[in-house]
Design brief:
The chain has helices spanning 21-30, 78-82, 90-97, 103-112, 134-142, 150-160, 167-176, 180-193, 198-206, 209-212; strands spanning 16-18, 45-47, 228-230, 244-246. The chain is mainly α. It starts with 15 loop residues before the first strand and ends in a 6-residue tail after the last strand. The relative contact order is 0.10.
Length: 252
């Protein structure tokens, strides 16, 4: 009985494995029903494709290969994550006219204005608040037209928590940037962290009820603990509790 076999028509440059001669004899005696391509004559060689031959390309986001993302990672706009229609950000166009085209530039500007927790050592030419206000910068960082990058939301959460923030204007700008759901998530986290601070209750009251009561998708926004500093349990403290401090811009 002759066991049929096929010779691969395409030759690869790497990965040659010798098939033992006894394998074909065993298959012949047992009458295996495996495909013909899996049965080899004595001494037949099976070749495999080179590792990484079909490797997917990398999709860079803010900076170069930030956060060590693996090859094949494909980022999506925040609007897609939230089930919203993509839009063109007018604040992004304004930032581009001010020579701040990249998200790294926006984070560097926020760090220059007191958000030192997110200092990225990116060199920019700072612009004054009269030209590009903190409300505009916060709404730009929260814009659903950006790629899904949690650090943008975290930097905006610290910047907009300045007591001098014009809350009605901030809400109006976020509405134009389709960012009310993100703003409501930050306001709820602030109210949970500082229940006695009227700042967050005022901000929640300014946000329309439709967006304020809407449930966001799971695992899209940063966890509330990413907006604040939390201490661990103190072994000898009279009351063992976690102290939560909201991150605010440092006044220079």
């Amino acid at each position: 009985m002759v066991i049929p076999f096929c010779v691969p028509s395409r030759t690869f440059a790497q990965g040659v494995d010798k098939i033992p001669a006894g394998r074909a004899k065993t298959a012949a005696r047992s009458g295996s029903n495996s495909p013909a391509s899996d049965q080899f004559a004595p001494g037949q060689e099976k070749r495999y494709p080179r590792a990484g031959r079909f490797k997917m390309s990398r999709y860079p986001i803010i900076g170069k290969q930030r956060n060590g993302r693996e090859a094949g990672y494909e980022e999506k706009p925040l609007a897609r994550k939230l089930g919203l229609a993509p839009h063109i950000s007018f604040l992004r166009k304004k930032a581009e006219r001010l020579r701040l085209p990249d998200p790294d530039d926006w984070i560097a500007l926020a760090a220059h204005r007191g958000c030192l927790h997110y200092t990225n050592y990116h060199e920019i030419t700072p612009v004054s608040e009269t030209v590009f206000s903190n409300e505009e910068l916060s709404a730009l960082l929260l814009s659903s037209g950006n790629m899904h990058e949690p650090i943008l939301i975290r930097a905006a959460a610290q910047l907009l928590s300045d007591p001098k923030t014009d809350l009605p204007r901030l809400v109006r700008l976020c509405e134009m940037e389709h960012a009310l759901l993100t703003l409501a998530w930050i306001a709820k986290a602030g109210a949970q962290t500082e229940p006695e601070n009227p700042f967050w209750q005022t901000l929640l009251a300014e946000i329309p009820a439709k967006e304020r009561n809407r449930q966001p998708p799971v695992a899209v926004f940063p966890h509330p603990s990413r907006f604040r500093v939390e201490t661990g349990f103190q072994r000898y403290a009279p009351v063992k509790a976690i102290r939560k401090v909201w991150l605010r811009p440092t006044q220079r």
